Amino acid sequence: MRSGPSAGQAPDPVPDPDLTARARIRDAAVARYAREGFGVGLRAIAQDAGVSAALILHHFGSKDALRAACDAHVLRVVREAKEQALVTGGTPDLLLQLASMDSYAPLVGYALRSMQAGGEPARDFVEHFVADAEVYIAEAVAAGSMRPSRDERARARYLTVQGLGALLLDMTLHPPADPTDVVGILHAYRDRMMLPAVELFTHGLMTDDRVLDAYLQHLADQPED
Fold first, then answer.
1. Digit-coded pLDDT (tens) for 139-157
2. Which of 3, 67, 135, 214 has the lowest CB atom count within 10 Å?
3. Claim: this prediction has a pTM higher than 0.70
4. CA 95: distance to chain centroid?
């Protein structure tokens, strides 16, 4: 018999009848993988989605294909949220996103599980994150809401690795009492890190260009290959 959710943990999702069976399966898989990792069996996902395991195979063909569909969905939703926040979003949009942070918890948990699992799927996932970041950062630069960079792709990679790595390290330093409580993990990280991160990205850290100028001079002095 399955036990109920622990205190502070979001309950198992109730299948949304307005979604297609394929979308219900995908969303149930994202939520399960976020809480328990990629070792979860298809029967557990099927139960959450209100379908049979056979129907999962009918729609996706294999567990690997299901994970690929989950990857694509998580990347798309994150990309759209980032675009809204960085390019078109004003203060009301940003406040709304903060208020609805719990709805993003399964996506964050899914990304963390992918990083923890490692291997080629994790590397591919990060590369997609970097490519998406490069696009929405370029849009933000064009819209005037972000400053340009001397190396836009390198900046997109740094921000991606910095964001995912900081969250993973924070979980290591502050191990959650319940590793399946993605909402609680996200709230704790937000409370510890959101203000200094937003402040740093908004106002910067250094008051002059001395360190940057020194590094640029170092690069200029390097012999050409």
1. 889 989 899 999 999 999 9
2. 3
3. yes
4. 19
Instruction: Using the Cα atoms of residue 21, residue 22, residue 25 and residue 31 in order, give the sign of their dihedral.
Output: negative
Number of other CB atoms surrounding residue 61 within 10 Å:
10
One DSSP character per residue, 45-89 reads HHHHHTS-HHHHHHHHSSHHHHHHHHHHHHHHHHHHHHHIIIII-
Residue-wise pLDDT tens digits, 167-202:
889 988 988 888 878 888 888 988 999 899 989 999
Q: How far apart are CA 183 and CA 107, in angstroms?
A: 11
Contact 133/163 with Cβ under 8 angstroms?
no
How many alpha carbons lie under 13 Å from residue 58 in its C-beta half-sphere? 9
Helix (H/G/I), strand (E/B), else coil: 39: coil
Average pLDDT rounded to a whole number, residues 69-96: 72
